[in-house]
Amino acid sequence: MPTSTIPTKEQILSTNKEAEPLLSFFDDLSDEEKMKLWKQLTTLNLSDARQWFIDSEEQRAPASAEDLKPIPHSHHFNQSEMHQAVLDELWNKGMDAITRGEVCAIVLAGGQATRLGSSQPKGTIPLGINAAYGDSLLGIQAAKIALLQALAGERDHQDPGKIHWAVMTSPGTEEATREHVQKLAHHHGFDFNEQITIFSQDEIAAYDENGDFLLGSKGSVVAAPNGNGGLYSAISAHLPRLRAKGIKYFHVYCVDNILCKVADPHFIGFAIANEADVATKCVPKQKGELVGSVCLDKGKPRVVEYSELGEKLAQQKTSDGKFLFGAGSIANHFFTMDFMDRVCSPSSRLPYHRAHKKISYVDKNGEIVKPEKPNGIKLEQFIFDVFELSERFFIWEVARNEEFSPLKNHQSVGTDCLSTCQRDLSNVNKIWLERAGANVTASKQVYLLSLVSFNGENLQELRHREISDEAIESDHTINKFFVH
Known about the structure:
Elements: H1 9-15, H2 31-44, H3 46-56, E1 68-70, E2 76-78, H4 84-99, E3 103-108, H5 137-154, E4 164-169, H6 174-188, H7 192-195, E5 196-200, E6 203-205, E7 207-208, E8 215-217, E9 220-221, E10 223-225, H8 231-235, H9 239-244, E11 249-254, H10 265-273, E12 278-284, E13 293-297, E14 300-304, H11 306-315, E15 327-336, H12 337-343, E16 353-357, E17 361-362, E18 368-369, E19 376-380, E20 393-397, H13 400-403, H14 418-435, E21 439-440, E22 466-467, H15 469-474, H16 476-479
Parallel strand pairs: 2-20, 3-4, 3-11, 4-5, 12-20, 21-22
Antiparallel strand pairs: 1-13, 6-10, 7-19, 8-9, 11-15, 12-15, 13-14, 16-19, 17-18
Helix pairs in contact: 4-5, 4-10, 5-6
């Protein structure tokens, strides 16, 4: 790139005076490094970021015990307690919406797999399962979408419904994610340009404890995605196009949950039947678990962190032995298009929350410092901070062992890691097989192909059949259902 196109330090400061401390080593950089730093500075909105840091200091006052109440039973439904006839009705209502092309599944896929020891986007890393094309979390999710569309088309010989798939990435994951999703779309016959929307959430500069910005190298600013609540500002520009396509309902979920039922007809049908503008899937909280609790704060729905709930309320139980504040949030939500239009408007801005982190940085001598304890602050927005704007809010409680197993940690941690995800997916598949009347005797982990069954359906051929290691390997009437 010609040197003449690279702005001088003075030119940068004329439009971005907040950048001055970040240009300390500008003269030491190559032309390519100068251009890269300048481009990054144009995306970070440093003047607003300075104000965000100040605003984030004034966090919401902790709720008092008197303010917090569980979501009432009239708005909290447990799937396991519902009659099959009711579940079938909800499934059909959700499938009707899919058949009409009214459903958009949004996957939050902005994170990299650094905690897993990989530089790839988390949604693209190999799982070692091969249950779906791509052998990735996004691969399993694409297969579920393809299967739902096929199931929608089988109903009374209707035209196959189209589920729109929106993928939220971040600047660090967009290119690799786009390439991976393009391959998945081609494999499943999705129209990439018409059926898939890939968009990137914003990044926000990180700070030291005094609110000053940090250099990660002499030519780059430390920045990170602005949290899952960055969805609303990131997708706002795409909403008119999605509305024009006929989208009325959104299912929003995190990419890292291997058991996620993407565009779940039961969940969507439940929300539509109750005229919900917002609904959230929850799992029963376990003792000592630190996930947030979905509850009411002064009559408004929100997610309250364990630290704010306090030990006494966190341990309080109902007459049937369940935790009173036991609706554990798993970042799995339903929104209507009308609600999204309202919260994505420029006048509706979510607060930023502080997270204290260990942040490597370049000191005034140009040396990289790697701290041993938290030394800085990253700001993030939370997706559930819009709950309090809901006018009809509902909880859909599901079984943890069938719907929630996140991939968050390195294998060495032993929880929420690749081996636990593999185990939990195999266990769900065994549950489905046993419900269908199969006799599972296999000693190894058992994986159904993702295109075979969404929720345990289509397994009637295996009724009264023994699912052994040998049968999965060599019996063609059985192994067509399985990874082998």
